[in-house]
Amino acid sequence: MRLLLDTHVLLWWLADDPSLAREAEGAIANPASVVFVSSATAWEIAIKQPLGKLDAPNDLERQIEVNRFEPLSITIGHAYSAGTLPRHHDDPFDRMLVAQALAEGLTIVTRDPRLSPYGVSTLSA
Asked: What per-residue confidence (pLDDT) applies to 115?
């Protein structure tokens, strides 16, 4: 599988949080899976962590590397697509994940039901 982790899923994985569904945990751990983390996720964490809205490791880039996740940069195409998506969801970070998943053929691992109307492949977290 080619997976794209939503922010909460990445943080649950890194914290070994039992909130993460077994099926999602198994897919992420599967050596045959390629697991991506978007630059948008790092950006969201960098904004929300100092505000106390979430808890994340201070060495996020290193943790992504140690877990053998693939960083996914934001392209001009991703940005334009995210901006032109229907307004089912107004969170700019989630809209970027949808745009990236659609463009790159990825399955988003998430617990957010608001992504379904986009027709993007999801795996429940």
From this structure: 95
